Amino acid sequence: MATFYLSTGVPLLKSDSTRVADHLASCRNVSDAFGIEAKTGRMYVQSKQIALIRCSRIAEKQDVASYKGSLDTDQDISNSTLDHQSNGFPLSRMKLTTKSRRKTKIVCTIGPSTSSREMIWKLAEMGMNVARLNMSHGDHSTHQKTIDLVKEYNAQFKDKVIAIMLDTKGPEVRSGDVPKPILLKDGQEFNFTIKRGVSTEDTVSVNYDDFINDVEVGDSVLVDGGMMSLTVKSKTNDLVKCVVVDGGELKSRRHLNVRGKSATLPSITDKDWDDIKFGVDNQVDFYAVSFVKDARVVHELKDYLKSCNADIHVIVKIESADSIPNLHSILSASDGAMVARGDLGAELPIEEVPLLQETIIKRCQSMQKTVIVATNMLESMIDHPTPTRAEVSDISIAVREGADAIMLSGETAHGKYPLKAVNVMHTVALRMESSLPVNSTTPNPLSVHKRHMGDMLAFHTTTMANTLKTPIIVFTRTGSMAILLSHYRPCSTIFAFTDDDRIKQRLVLYHGVMPIYMQFSSDAEETFSRALELLLDKGHVVDGDHVTLVQSGAQPIWRKESIHHIQLLRLFSPYLLICRPSPMESMRQEKHSS
């Protein structure tokens, strides 16, 4: 059974918009309240009598189009009236006035520039949601310090959290050590050998014995993701002879790629397994697994984690040519994906990368997987205090395409301006989000009914919240309903209350979700009241606001297993009054058999 609580008698919004609540409450079915346009699939309120929907609280009317200054998480964004049609109001044309919180999350790589306690606190306050540990650099003792500092930060706050992502090194093919940089000139002959310790003006070692077998005459060898390139002319049993096409300075341990090919190395190396065990011991939240070529490696890792009783989600890094044909099976086996554009653009033609980024994001959305866009997002800010305009556009595109998160690598690991880089990413993402149509990334509503009840409840909860411009509150022990709600991209924040610290940390990666830790009592109403008081005390909502509360998910907390609730609540102070239907209004409610 699914019960939708749509109560009357409460002035939900000012002026004409009070009719919205009355109209919703008078409907016997959810389908009576909301319609779908045949052409576009847009949702709208089915009422010809409503002239406008305006927000219930407008502190200051500011037009985002003419807004000057930075957009932070406590500033209001614009309101505007709706373009309306005779049969309702398409949600995709709605611009909302709300306390704006950035929904796209930010992953920051921690390195020498940001590994101190002071810098981690500042990164968090600036907008970091996930701290990434790059296992290609540093040792376990260095990363242990970062983990301890993040856990110290998390212990101080109920409504703030940083997740920890351990990024494996993977099977990287690198050149050997050189005593000083070797200058490669266009047209020069240069060799790679599988003999160890070789470093001359025209020959350097590689760390991979099968490099000889993987390359063929005519192949392009890229150094540092394409900063230099060479063409293979011939090879012997231990030497690959090349001609330099694009020269530059070859330094120690540079990354090598062969265009269109992946190294025949296991995706998880012995070093990676040591690092994965380190992550299990420290209860990290996510693994980012490098150079995943097929689903087998994901299953292997998940089986290992299960044997360790470790609840850690697996994010696959799509960065090799071999991963593209196996994309569906890889994503199906994983918990999410990272579009690692550096190596992806080295192994495949660079003009394919934007198309692959869009494809991977769409595929993840359709499969309800989280997705991160990474590499070179603000590369110039490693050395400069302001980004290029192209980098700003790059962030905007990732946000518009619907990425759950965007990532900084060298910008925060060893850059000169890590805090400014995070601030740029925050403000650009927030500004872009404020301009997006409400349902621009919402999946096709007609496909919802092919899934289980949780999907239907998440979809209708999002529709209500978008129509009435309310934040969403969900109580969860597994995170499942919060993740579903995130997938439907509501226009307001999803406040996800949980009594599990691990779930709180995991949920912070998901688009639009603000996880909050709180102990649940056996009394549902008392728990609701404490949650609303916390939101009021922290300034996340204000007196008179309305919220949409949903009870559903994999594990019922207070409800009977077969009952799912969506409730509309209005906040009052100094006490909280939960809006419940009167006996007369209860007659208007409709119970739908599932």
From TrEMBL:
Q: Which GO terms describe its cellular component?
A: chloroplast stroma
Chief location category = plastid
Pfam families documented for this protein: PK, PK_C
Q: Cofactors per UniProt?
A: K(+); Mg(2+)
Output the Gene Ontology terms for molecular function: ATP binding; kinase activity; magnesium ion binding; potassium ion binding; pyruvate kinase activity
Which EC class heads this enzyme's classification?
Answer: transferase
Q: Which InterPro entries match?
A: Pyr_Knase (IPR001697), Pyrv/PenolPyrv_kinase-like_dom (IPR015813), Pyrv_kinase-like_dom_sf (IPR040442), Pyrv_Knase-like_insert_dom_sf (IPR011037), Pyrv_Knase_AS (IPR018209), Pyrv_Knase_brl (IPR015793), Pyrv_Knase_C (IPR015795), Pyrv_Knase_C_sf (IPR036918)
Q: Which reaction does it catalyse?
A: pyruvate + ATP = phosphoenolpyruvate + ADP + H(+)
Q: Which PROSITE patterns match?
A: PYRUVATE_KINASE (PS00110)
Q: What's the Enzyme Commission number for this chain?
A: 2.7.1.40
> Which locations, inside or outside the cell, does it occupy?
Plastid, Chloroplast
UniProt keywords (A-Z) are: ATP-binding, Chloroplast, Glycolysis, Kinase, Magnesium, Metal-binding, Nucleotide-binding, Plastid, Potassium, Pyruvate, Transferase, Transit peptide
Can you give the residue ranges of the Pyruvate kinase C-terminal domain? Answer: 458-551
Q: Where is the Pyruvate kinase barrel domain?
A: 102-422
- Pathway(s): Carbohydrate degradation; glycolysis; pyruvate from D-glyceraldehyde 3-phosphate: step 5/5
Q: Which family does it belong to?
A: Belongs to the pyruvate kinase family.
Which protein, by its recorded name, is this?
Answer: Pyruvate kinase
Species per Swiss-Prot/TrEMBL record = Cucurbita moschata (Winter crookneck squash)
